[in-house]
Amino acid sequence: MKLHWSPRSPYVRKVMITLHETGRLSEVTQVRTVVSAHEPPNPEILRDNPLGKIPALVTEEGVLFDSRVICTWLDKDGALLADSVQARRWQALADGATEILLAWRTELTRPSGPWQPLTDSYRTKIRAVMATLEGEAQLLADVDFGAGHVALVCYLGQLDFRWPDCNWRCAFPRLAQVAATWEARPSVRATAVRDDGGSDTSLTAGQLTFAKETP
């Protein structure tokens, strides 16, 4: 199988974690594929995914795209990654929050400058997501590692990669504690986000900060 891959993509990382968890990593050849929301679509990915997005997994049965579809297909019987309505809810929350972070970063690159009402909206939504996860930290710790956790790992990884000054671990200590157990998993350590393209974190500096909780 061939996987259109990037070491920076949170959605590709979901697939990579799933490959590790299911023991199927050796079945896949990773092909570095560059995509950008504000540039013309890459012809290489368009040949396999008409949406021009990664990840895309080329199999003998056809091409699969969208990380949720690919991860579900890789763990067909759900034996290794716990699947439930709650897991799918966390997955939807994490994927949606990740989309906000990526759209926010793209907005910050606008030549004429970002539209403030839009970035303010992004900030409010991300803060609400983090508050929700902090409130559900114990439940996240109590259930088996599953698709929802995979998506949350990748969302939080994107916070660390693109928004390194946001201070989320201090602001949300219960979430940070359970996230530390996920970060210890071999599949998560092996798929840590890598910058192979000169990512500019100065774009996001000061754009998103969380205040430390007070007793």
Automatic annotation (TrEMBL):
Annotated GST N-terminal domain residues: 1-82
Annotated GO MF terms: transferase activity
Pfam family, one: GST_N_2
InterPro entries xref list: Glutathione-S-Trfase_C_sf (IPR036282), Glutathione_S-Trfase_N (IPR004045), GST_Omega/HSP26 (IPR050983), Thioredoxin-like_sf (IPR036249)
Assigned GO CC terms: cytoplasm
Source species, domain of life: Bacteria
Keywords: Transferase
Annotated spans, Disordered: 193-215
Listed name of the protein: Glutathione S-transferase
Source species: Pseudooceanicola sediminis
Top-level taxonomy: Bacteria, Pseudomonadati, Pseudomonadota, Alphaproteobacteria, Rhodobacterales
